[in-house]
Design goal:
Helix content is 47%, strand content 12%. The chain has 10 helices and 5 strands. It has a 5-stranded mixed sheet, sandwiched between helices. The protein starts with a strand and ends with a helix.
Length: 171
């Protein structure tokens, strides 16, 4: 499923909670598939092209809908998975006018060079201490990039980092 991810890393989640909820509700007018995680919003965009236009138009409509509630410009990305959209949004330039769009078929090339530690940026609903421990164990065994992590078989990863390997693989 194609996912659009927005993040506002510079805002205080507690102070902007009402505005974030309002922005979430505004996005739900575009798509019923909207989730909120702190200062992050994500939206499933499959099927929106018929109503809104291509992915660039969807990103523009999303920015307009959220700008009414949050003055800060979000970092925004579209990709074929929640993980990749979140990672691409974190890496996006907040001042960029064009959204970061990871085309189909280029996911691996986009993810491979990113550090394993970046998975913590996109992990929602995971215990922070367990994820930090898994990332630390990866580093101890020389697994420093997401590309290296992806090349490991699940059994090899579990042997290297223990039972918390599922935290890394499931993202």
């Amino acid at each position: 499923m194609r996912t659009l991810h927005l993040c506002w890393p510079g805002i205080d989640e507690r102070r902007a909670a009402a505005q974030l909820r309002a922005a979430q509700h505004a996005l739900q007018r575009l798509s019923p598939l909207v989730a909120a995680h702190g200062t992050h919003l994500e939206m499933g965009i499959d099927g929106l092209a018929a109503r809104v236009g291509d992915e660039t138009a969807i990103a523009a409509a999303t920015r307009r809908a959220t700008a009414v509630h949050l003055r800060a410009r979000p970092q925004l990305a579209i990709a074929s998975s929640r993980l990749l959209a979140a990672l691409a949004a974190h890496a996006a330039d907040a001042d960029a006018t064009a959204p970061t769009i990871v085309p189909h078929g280029e996911e691996e090339a986009h993810l491979a060079p990113l550090p394993v530690a970046d998975l913590a940026l996109a992990a929602t609903g995971r215990p922070a201490d367990e994820l930090a421990a898994a990332i630390e164990r990866c580093a101890l065994f020389g697994v420093r990039t997401i590309g290296t992590l992806a090349r490991l078989r699940s059994a090899d990863l579990a042997a290297r980092v223990g039972s918390i390997a599922a935290l890394l693989r499931s993202e």
